[in-house]
């Protein structure tokens, strides 16, 4: 099952059940959703990607991934000059927290405005 098939199936069921006003026990439904999600994960995990595709998924550059393949950190499932890596083996780049934005308070703005309006010449 692909990701698209997964989404189509469960969005279709949601829409149908909402239209019909169906309420059902949640446990068995969640069991089926989780089984489908596991199927999608298994299929995507075995997918072989070139370095450009792997870079998009992992957050690392293609050059960094190529270096990992050369060093043996990532297994090459392709040829020497056309490496392929398995999606499940990809490292994930840690996300950086957003940098704090400097906020100017009203006093700073008033000071800046006043200094701009002060006549030059020293009188």
Q: What does this entry look like structurally?
A:
The protein is mostly helical and 123 residues long. The protein folds into 2 domains: 1-45; 49-92. It is built from 5 helices and 2 strands; from the N terminus they run ααβααβα. Strands 1-2 form a two-stranded antiparallel ribbon. Helix 3 crosses helix 4. The chain starts with a helix and ends in a 6-residue tail after the last helix.
In spatial order, strands of the major sheet run: 1-2
The H-and-E topology, N to C, reads as HHEHHEH
Mean pLDDT: 81
Helix content: 55-70%
Radius of gyration: 27 Å
Poorly predicted parts? none
Strand tally = 2
Global outline: flat
**CA distance, first residue to last residue:** 80 Å
Could you tell me the strand content as a percent range? under 5%
Helix tally equals 5
- How many domains is the backbone divided into? 2
Main beta sheet strand tally, sense and closure = 2 strands, antiparallel
């Amino acid at each position: 099952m692909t990701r698209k098939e997964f989404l189509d199936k469960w969005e279709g069921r949601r829409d149908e059940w909402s239209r019909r006003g169906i309420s059902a026990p949640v446990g068995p439904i969640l069991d089926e959703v989780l089984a489908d999600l596991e199927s999608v994960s298994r299929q995507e995990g075995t997918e072989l990607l070139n370095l450009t595709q792997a870079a998009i998924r992992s957050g690392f550059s293609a050059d960094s991934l190529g270096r990992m393949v050369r060093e043996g950190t990532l297994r090459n499932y392709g040829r020497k000059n056309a490496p392929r890596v398995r999606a499940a083996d990809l490292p994930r780049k840690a996300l950086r927290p957003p940098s704090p934005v400097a906020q100017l308070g009203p006093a700073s703005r008033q000071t800046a405005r006043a200094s701009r309006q002060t006549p030059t010449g020293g009188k």
